[in-house]
Prior knowledge:
The chain has 14 helices and 7 strands. The chain is α+β, with helices and mostly antiparallel strands. The radius of gyration is 22 Å and the shape is elongated.
Amino acid sequence: MSGTHPADPIAEAFEAHRDRLTAVAYRVLGSHADADDAVQEAWLRLSRQDTDTIDNLGGWLTTVVGRISLDLIRSGRTRPTVPLDDQLPELTVTLDAGPAPEELVALGDSVGLALLTVLDSLRPDERLAFVLHDVFAVPHGEIGTILGRSADATKMLTSRARRKVQAARQSASDRQRHREVVGAFLAAAREGQFERLLEVLHPEVKFTVHTPNGRFVTLGATEVATRARVAGSAARGHAATVNGRPGVISWNEDGTPLSLLAFTVADGRITEITAVIDPAKLALIDLPDPV
């Protein structure tokens, strides 16, 4: 981190907490760049602080990062998350053989962008309380200090946020049904079953392809079914979860990524498909290793 000195004991102590602080800030703000800014600001504040007055450095830093993050989302100065179909934002991709983002949340290990989308619907204080308590196990009393509320009031706030998040999450059965619809689409695309493609595509489906020559959008079931060969070529890839959506990832023989697909399913039909086949864009995404 710029501004820290490895030989400085305080800098070394800060570095020991940096990954956790970055994780907290990212899950509150939804942007890696904003999270880095928040953590850097926390370091600057620590460097000006009399560290002899800090009994618990980890708790102090979490409080500072929490307050900075809260100020950012309240002021609206955070960088907005761009919809997947427009400019290709930071993507969370997990292979379906491993835990899905929602399951990682339950383990307190990670929060994917699917959950960040849900968190966007929460008030800033609800969002901070939920992330700190349910993901990072910060006591309600410490969260209350950040929010200027009592521990009991913070507990109620966290409970309300938790109910909202749980209501917004898809159930496992929903995810399975969506995956089955996507599987039917890929099989039909691979085998050239035009009528079957029309059955699983919404009449107003949107198909966005990110290619080396730019982004191309196709609208309508008939047009998308005609162009489904692009998606069908990835049918032999590995099932994945992309920003909470069912997806497919495939690799070249040398292990480099070949394509990434993400699907949105509603009422048993595919309403949106996003395909990334641009090697430059694929190289920028934190993708799982080939299997």
